[in-house]
């Protein structure tokens, strides 16, 4: 696959079109036949599907693998605390991007993948929200593709997407040199308006009807992605996004039950691609998601939409 070159500044629409084609990776989960128009559910990852930052969660493993020093571990722990305490605004995300780009310069890509693969189930499995996993199942059962759209690096996000049974993953990618190591440059940054562009480009290439698609996020920086679909939902929102959701009457979901996938009810265990079942079963799967709405009048209509749209 030919990747677009590294960029600085704001990429053009033509560049974004090439990037989305290159970086919207399918994962190892077999799709089912779809009738047109197709639909999809787009999920942010950190604090939406999982309870922490996916990249920062691996800091201890990177330290044990010799990629970072103790000082870097402490700094990433502090960054994780700030991220969890109040979310990250645009300026904080930019500082985090610059720090992590510099931090990973010189890392061997294959070593990173091996560390992630080895620690994935121990670190990520316990922090997956049960409500999110159930919602992913409900969308799959309703015949929708599930797409993870994350600012975190592809080496981390892609195996998580596969574990969750996602059909596609859009994630940030770093430039890799001829020596197989990260150069410290960013090749594709899946953030803010770029996420929304990725959603629209995927809709065009995959035949998704965005008016009937869903999106989920916790961050004000993902408003462009939420605006791109007909059924936006906010999950554990930061204060700015909560205000936006109230103003726009977007449903607000509260996810608060991280649980290992293997410990979930047998009927709700994650599958690579669940088969289509009757609409009644879809409604039951959606109900078990345990979604807590900020207005009760939205609950029934939103759950019905997941099952029948």
Features:
about 300 residues; alpha/beta; 8-stranded mixed β-sheet; 8 strands; globular; disordered N terminus
List the helices and strands and how they pair.
Blueprint: H1 13-23, E1 25-26, E2 40-43, H2 54-57, H3 59-64, H4 70-86, H5 90-103, H6 109-123, H7 130-141, E3 145-153, H8 154-164, E4 168-176, E5 182-188, H9 193-206, E6 214-217, H10 223-227, E7 231-235, H11 239-248, E8 252-253, H12 279-287, H13 296-308
Parallel strand pairs: 2-3, 2-6, 3-4, 6-7, 7-8
Antiparallel strand pairs: 1-4, 4-5
Helix pairs in contact: 1-9, 6-8, 7-12, 12-13
Explain briefly what this protein structure is.
This protein has 309 residues and is α/β, with parallel strands linked by helices. The chain has 13 helices and eight strands. Strands 1, 2, 3, 4, 5, 6, 7 and 8 form an eight-stranded mixed β-sheet that branches.
Q: Pick out the low-confidence regions.
A: 1-19, 81-86, 266-301
Count, helices? 13
Q: What is the radius of gyration computed over CA atoms, rounded to a whole number of angstroms?
A: 19 Å
Shape: globular
Protein structure class: alpha/beta
Helix content: 40-55%
Q: What is the makeup of the main sheet?
A: 8 strands, mixed
Query: How many beta-strand elements?
Result: 8
Tell me the strand percentage band. 5-15%
Distance between the termini: 35 Å
Whole-number mean pLDDT: 77
Order of helices and strands: HEEHHHHHHEHEEHEHEHEHH
């Amino acid at each position: 696959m030919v990747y677009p070159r590294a960029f600085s500044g704001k990429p053009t629409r033509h560049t974004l079109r090439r990037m989305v084609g290159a970086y919207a990776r399918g994962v190892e989960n077999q799709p089912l036949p779809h009738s047109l128009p197709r639909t999809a559910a787009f999920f942010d990852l950190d604090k939406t599907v999982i309870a922490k930052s996916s990249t920062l969660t691996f800091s201890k493993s990177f330290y044990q693998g010799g990629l970072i020093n103790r000082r870097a571990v402490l700094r990433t722990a502090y960054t994780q605390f700030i991220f969890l305490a109040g979310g990250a605004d645009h300026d904080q995300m930019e500082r985090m991007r610059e720090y992590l780009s510099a931090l990973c310069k010189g890392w061997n890509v294959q070593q990173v993948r091996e560390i992630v693969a080895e620690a994935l189930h121990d670190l990520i499995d316990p922090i997956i929200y049960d409500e999110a996993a159930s919602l992913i199942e409900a969308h799959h059962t309703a015949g929708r593709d599930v797409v993870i759209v994350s600012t975190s690096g592809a080496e981390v996000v892609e195996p998580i997407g596969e574990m969750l049974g996602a059909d596609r993953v859009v994630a940030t990618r770093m430039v890799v040199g001829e020596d197989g190591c990260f150069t410290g440059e960013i090749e594709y940054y899946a953030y803010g308006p770029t996420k929304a562009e990725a959603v629209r480009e995927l809709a065009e290439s995959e035949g998704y009807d965005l008016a009937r698609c869903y999106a989920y996020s916790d961050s004000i920086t993902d408003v462009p992605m939420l605006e791109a679909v007909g059924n936006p939902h906010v999950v554990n929102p930061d204060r700015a996004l909560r205000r936006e959701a109230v103003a726009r009457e977007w449903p607000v979901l509260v996810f608060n039950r991280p649980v290992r996938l293997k410990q979930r009810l047998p009927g709700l265990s994650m599958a690579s691609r669940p088969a289509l079942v009757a609409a009644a079963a879809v409604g039951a799967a959606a109900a078990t998601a345990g979604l807590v709405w900020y207005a009760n009048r939205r609950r029934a209509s939103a759950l019905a939409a997941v099952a029948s749209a």
